[in-house]
Amino acid sequence: MEYRFATHMTTITGNAIREIFKLVGNPEIISFAGGMPSAESFAKHEIADIYKELLDEKGESLLQYGATDGYYPLKVAMVPFLADKGVTATEDGMMIVSGSQQSIDLMCRAFIEPGDVVLVERPTYLAVLHILATHQAKPVGVEMQDDGVDLADLEEKMRAHRPKILYLVPTFQNPTGRTMSLEKRKAVVALAKKYGVVIIEDDPYRDLRYRGEALPAIHSFDDGAHVVYSTSVSKIISPGMRVGVVVAPPEILRKLNIAKQAVDVHTNLPAQAVIAEVLNRGIVEKRLPAVLEEYKVRMHAMLEALGKYFPQEVKCTQPDGGLFIWLELPEGIDTTAIFPQAVERNVAYVPGAPFFCDGTGQNTMRLNFSASNIERIDRGMAALGGLIGELV
Amino acid sequence: MEYRFATHMTTITGNAIREIFKLVGNPEIISFAGGMPSAESFAKHEIADIYKELLDEKGESLLQYGATDGYYPLKVAMVPFLADKGVTATEDGMMIVSGSQQSIDLMCRAFIEPGDVVLVERPTYLAVLHILATHQAKPVGVEMQDDGVDLADLEEKMRAHRPKILYLVPTFQNPTGRTMSLEKRKAVVALAKKYGVVIIEDDPYRDLRYRGEALPAIHSFDDGAHVVYSTSVSKIISPGMRVGVVVAPPEILRKLNIAKQAVDVHTNLPAQAVIAEVLNRGIVEKRLPAVLEEYKVRMHAMLEALGKYFPQEVKCTQPDGGLFIWLELPEGIDTTAIFPQAVERNVAYVPGAPFFCDGTGQNTMRLNFSASNIERIDRGMAALGGLIGELV
């Protein structure tokens, strides 16, 4: 039978990273391709105990259907969790989502009609480009500098394209690791107001800071109308539990709720209750410093290996936190084309092109340092640097 | 700020049932409005123990990101679970979803462009009408008889509308409780082939049978190309865990996977692992008979109360299983209009109109019997029957 798929779905391929994950299942391959937190960082026994305790005690309600906007005790626990990030929100001003990425999909459902423009950083989180494609939004890239988007280019593109949404990952951006400066955080809100654009501030990495002072969320400079703030506990508690939170103006929140009713009714309820307890019992505060110390060591090991094994022509970012380092190779080296050669040498990364909305970036790549220990980082980087050295 | 929501989202209101849930939070109100399994049916201690055991043992992998198509051991456990229903599927022929309802949303993402026709039963599951609205699909209702859709009307509408999808709940349908006959199950597949339509067979209730013999799934009469089968463990293990499964032809499955990557990356991983163990350890088989016995008693109590307290002009379905009884009141009684009067008498139901895609059904209502004990069923039905008696 010839299926009559929606026209735009006939050309969309899978998320590039998730396809690569399948390739690098082989444990001999040192993978810098993921965006996963270190599995040793999970508080698995505490989480196991909390699941048991909560289900034994109130399994009747936790195994039953729940509210679309989220489990109330988790919303209560999210208030101080968000306040720490400079995000003021009441229980009624947020919705629990099935991972921070779901916020972006729900925002597209609420706002996007085919052809609507969404401004994104260039490069940006590739899953967002995938989401935009499924909604037939038109992504337009805004140039980036080391301290975040180029404001002149941003204003020019707001004026020219009248975008509905500006999508930003201002802190330890995926894929570059860059952080937007304080001045630019204020400036993007002012531009959003001037041009009537809603900003999605996607902020899943901000608790992973290894040096320098935390900056307030873009949301803190808003008047309550222009910034939708989304974050998750995937990087500090567990990504497999798929729990995030979105803070939005009431009118937008109502649309997100209507959209979520259609998507999955509500987020897994036992997981919501467990996350509430993990936050309330201070388990993150207790464990995170050691995890950050280890990630910091891994990031430095990778930066050091870059200096040691890679040709000088390769440029890299110098993040203050997060999970990623971004490489720019000399023009002419296509990181997608050489990927099989890297895998042959037992090392994997993510080619940079899928992070660009305009088909460029062939000479870039994203490296993750959090999921490998320093011995494997050194070994993998030696192999990768060797390969690139031969090509330069 | 005036938000530029997508045009079609400006007119969609929330799912009627979820709005009613908010109204009937008061425990004094006897609610026949939900579609919830009985909370006492949950194997909460077994589930608590399994969560603890699995997370203690392999929390590193269960708290990490997982595959979009699902946790492999759950797929393995789903093979015999599906075979019991007459659905032959390999691990590669299915995808785990965040509740059976997600299958329908993903199917819409894969197939629907604005204005595309989807045939539904008349009445049909109201959440599906909500999903179709968010995708701007055009639902067209097919007349129902006591043994399922009217085949002549179905063929007529397939011919006239060239629908992409036919959505069916053939067993203990929501909202009517009706079951499609064996002959019609075969016939709808033949019509789907003839007119190039994909059938979604949504089958979450089939394990809740109180009398008669189980019928094979529509999927069992397919040649592997025309039927997408979706079910969940919500009614027999836990709805709050949001775990379902969809079986589809490979080409469709690829599109569903691409769509799910955008929606929620993957379904909550600890929940998937726990459901696999609940299935593997035979906990459902051990507990379900007693649950079914109780539901059967409740259904009979409700049918008996209908005879005792309701005027003879009220017609009702006589289901063989499931969670619902469907009432048709005399023309002129608007069940939405009288809903506040029912709530005043401490009883709630779901007005029938939202289950119709064509704005009709004002004189119908759906009653759930599984969530109330027989004492409350008798008391609530006396109150509701009294109200309707006054109006007839």
Note down, in words, how this protein is organized.
2 copies of one chain form a homodimer. The first copy, chain A, is globular and about 60 Å long. Chain A starts with 15 loop residues before the first helix and ends with a helix. Helices cover 41% and strands 15% of the residues of chain A. Chain A has 12 helices and 14 strands. The mean pLDDT of chain A is 95. Chain A has 392 residues and is an alpha/beta fold. In chain A, β10 (315-316) and β11 (324-328) form a beta hairpin. At the A-B interface, α2, α4, α5, α8 and α9 of A face α2, α4, α5, α8 and α9 of B.
Q: Biggest sheet of chain A: strands, sense, closure?
A: 8 strands, mixed
* Widest beta sheet: strand line-up of chain A: 2-9-8-7-6-3-4-5
Supply Rg of chain A.
21 Å
Approximately how much beta-strand content do the residues of chain A carry? 5-15%
The residue-averaged pLDDT of chain A reads: 95
Indicate the overall shape of chain A. Answer: globular
Helix and strand element order of chain A: HEHHEHEHEEHEHEEEHHHEEHEEEH
Q: CA-to-CA gap between the ends of chain A?
A: 49 Å
Number of strands of chain A: 14
Low-confidence stretches of chain A: none
Largest interface, counted with CB-CB under 8 A?
A-B, 88 and 88 residues
Helix content of chain A: 40-55%
Our count of helices of chain A gives: 12
